[in-house]
Amino acid sequence: MIGKDFREIMGSELVSITGGLITGVILTFATNRIEMIPALLILLPGFLETRGNLSGSLSARLSAGLHLGIFKQEYNRKKIVKGNVIASFVLIVFMSLFLGFVAYYASMEFFGITNQNIIFVSLLAGIISNVIEIPLTIFATFWLFRHGHDPNNIMGPYTTTTGDIVSVISILIALSLI
Hints:
The protein is mostly helical.
């Protein structure tokens, strides 16, 4: 007999694999735009990794609070969620700026291309992805817990997958705006 935890983990991993394929397809259709800006090739891996890590840690903190019963009082729930959302936004702004500067200087060093817009693309894409990803993470974590699932089993692959898809789309949106 297959246990509940195994089913949750297996299902979330299948969703993660599917999401990775979707992200790859989106990147395939955007290859022409990405090739035009070599700094994106430097920015993209770190940006994708950062997005999944921040959402994953947010979900883990919320899940731990749910399991420990910290959110039983409305005041605690609002205070803790608000603090985590602010921390996630501050982290993504600093990390996006850092990744943008790394991509800029690496592009300058390796390719001889100086385009400061990569810093703004990174920052704007980070903000756009956070505005989408944070509510998804919070909603999914609380929804899963309320429906009897363990968010720790499901949210890691979920946030990685949604983070990748949202990040790639956010970078493409930021490229269009800048």
